[in-house]
Structure formats: C-alpha cells, structure tokens
Design goal:
Elements lengths: L1 H12 L6 H21 L3 E9 L2 E9 L2 E9 L7 H4 L3 H16 L10 E8 L7 E8 L4
Parallel strand pairs: 3-4
Antiparallel strand pairs: 1-2, 2-3, 4-5
Length: about 140
C-alpha cells in the first residue's frame, strides 16, 4: 500500500529527495572527479574512502612531503550556504578523527609528514564547476 501511495505523492508533490543509492552514486562520481583533478595538479592519491567508527575521509593524497586529507562535497543547490558551508565543525571533527585513526593504523608510515585538510567543492555532478580549497580547516592540536 505504501508503494502505491508514494507513487501518487511523487506525481502530485514532485520527485522528492533523491534515493540514498542515487546520492551515493553521485558522491562516488564526485570523488572520482576530485581525485582526477588533484592528480592532474600533481597530487598522488594514497587512499580513498577511509572510514572508522565516527568518521570518514574521502581522499588521502600526497603533495610533495605533505599528506593531504580531502573532503569532497557535491551540492548542486546553494540552500543553507552550499557545499562549503556543509563542512561544519561536526563534519570537520569526523574527518579529523578518521585521519588520526588512519595515521595510527594503516597510514603510520606517513606519521612524520606535515598534514593539511583540504576540500574539493562541486556544484554540479559533471564537475564543470569545481573549487579546491587548500587548508579548508585545521585540526586542533
């Protein structure tokens, strides 16, 4: 019954939010575009989608001697500030937690490197408008 009602609701109200799998697919494409853009600018992708309990880092790259943790955000709408504004203190904390966890485990060989937190912001899923924010936020010591 719910499926029937949802079908009518979509016709009357309009599409509604994208299903989670559509958002996940768009997010993965955005990460691919960001990784390609960063690689074309001289960075080497070391790891992708690093997760730990309570956090996640989309891309981990090397730029020279520096280790760069990258948050990729795709926001086609500018409601509530767009992609940059969506990286709030809570999200920053989750990225920092995942970075620290990775450095203490699989990435321990990189523990001596200076670290930086960047963001790549996309405003369309095809990557026509991409902005790279170097040093988007810092980890509080």
């Amino acid at each position: 019954m719910a499926g029937w009602l949802d079908g009518w609701r979509k016709r009357i109200v309009g599409g509604g939010p994208a299903p989670a799998q559509d958002r996940a697919g768009a997010g993965a494409r955005a990460e691919d575009l960001a990784a390609r853009m960063l690689s074309s600018r001289g960075l080497t992708v070391v790891a992708r989608n690093v997760r730990c309990r309570g956090g996640e880092v989309d891309l981990i790259c090397l730029e020279g001697v520096s280790l760069v943790f990258v948050e990729v955000r795709l926001r086609s709408r500018q409601d509530f500030g767009g992609a940059a504004a969506s990286i709030d203190r809570r999200k920053q904390g989750r990225v920092i937690l995942a970075a620290r966890t990775w450095l203490a485990g699989p990435g321990r060989a990189h523990g001596h490197r200076p670290c930086r937190f960047d963001a790549v912001l996309l405003t369309d899923p095809e990557g026509r408008r991409m902005e790279w924010l170097r040093g988007a936020f810092e980890a509080d010591a």
